[in-house]
Write a structure and sequence with these properties.
Layout (H helix, E strand, L loop, with lengths): L2 H11 L6 E6 L2 E6 L16 H5 L33 E4 L4 E4 L15 E2 L4 E7 L2 E6 L4 E6 L6 E2 L4 E6 L2
Length: 165
């Protein structure tokens, strides 16, 4: 692809709300993604201690050896008080902007200490100019709002923490 064409395309996209563009011309394909990349996936690996690794000399021409069996990875506990063992979170199903109320002059859908039932509207996540109401999947009492009004949120990010009722 011609560098000048690429520069022209990028300049044309500046200031727009386009987040992805696929351009096909003949046998050339250009796939542009603008904005924030998806959150990285992480994995936990168990490794031998450095002293053990140093004790095993490995000649450069040796074929790869199968890794030692790993212990099952335990999920890391979130930073929560010890009395919140039964607490659960409501996570964002979208990447977008978090809103606690329907409009700036409206009261929040839910406040700290409020008891909600299944299906109650908790907030709105605006994604691609669509206002998506996020509803409670379980009944509970709101313990903590984890995101500020108007803040961008990622897919799977915890929005609220509830205790069961």
């Amino acid at each position: 692809m011609d560098v000048e064409k690429l520069k022209a395309i990028l300049e044309a996209l500046q200031g727009t709300e386009v987040t992805r563009l696929t351009w096909v011309e003949g046998q050339e394909t250009l796939d542009l993604r603008l904005g924030h990349p998806p959150p990285p996936t992480t994995s936990v690996h168990t490794m031998a201690a450095p002293a053990q690794m140093a004790a095993i000399p490995t000649p450069p021409s040796v074929a790869p050896v199968a890794p030692a069996p790993r212990a099952p990875a335990a999920s890391a506990p979130a930073a929560r008080p010890a009395d919140d063992k039964n607490a659960f979170t409501v996570n964002s199903p979208f990447v977008g902007t978090f809103y606690r109320s329907a409009s700036p002059e409206s009261p929040p859908f839910v406040d700290i200490g409020s008891v909600v039932k299944k299906g109650s509207v908790l907030c709105i996540v605006e994604a691609m100019k669509l206002m998506n109401e996020i509803e409670a999947e379980l009944p509970g009492r709101l313990v903590e709002a984890l995101v500020q009004n108007g803040q961008p949120v990622e897919y799977g990010e915890a929005l609220f923490r509830f205790e069961p009722v």
